[in-house]
Amino acid sequence: MPTIRFVREARDVNCRSGENLRVVALREGLELYGFKGSIGNCGGCGQCITCFVSIEGGSKDALSPLTAVEKVKLKNRPSNWRLACQCVVQSSVIVFTKPQSPPSNTKELIKDALVNVLPR
Question: Which of 14, 19, 109, 120 has its CA 20 to 30 A from that of 63?
Fold first, then answer.
């Protein structure tokens, strides 16, 4: 069973392999969206690009490959950014939500999250 470590929230969440990352985050009550996204998201269709996450660790195949939607919508974004609505969880992964508005201690949070290796 994969574990998703949500760095900003300091939470580890178990899910089934094949679950959608956005669905898991919302089911667990995690705040996936910034202000704009919370009032105007597309409901998981990949059109509004407000469910940005930054993938900070895990195997190369921890999430499904980039979708065609992500290739277009994330063209000028960092290479480790994904749209949560487009990601299918395959194995354990470390996720940083809302990377477009990082707190001042982002590097420390990520470093702390990487200290304990996630189970495979």
Answer: 109
Dist CA 53 CA 97 (whole Å)? 5
The domains located in the chain, with CATH, are 3-111 (3.10.20.30)
Question: What is the pLDDT, as a whole number, of residue 1?
Answer: 92
What is the rounded CA–CA span in Å between residue 11 and residue 19? 17
Identify each DSSP E strand in the chain by its residue range: 3-6, 11-14, 52-58, 81-83, 93-97
Give me the sign of the Cα torsion angle 39, 33, 74, 13.
Answer: negative
* Residue 18 pLDDT > 50: yes
Using DSSP, state whether 63 is helix, strand or coil: strand
The pLDDT of 39-55, averaged and rounded, is 90
**pLDDT greater than 70 at residue 109:** yes
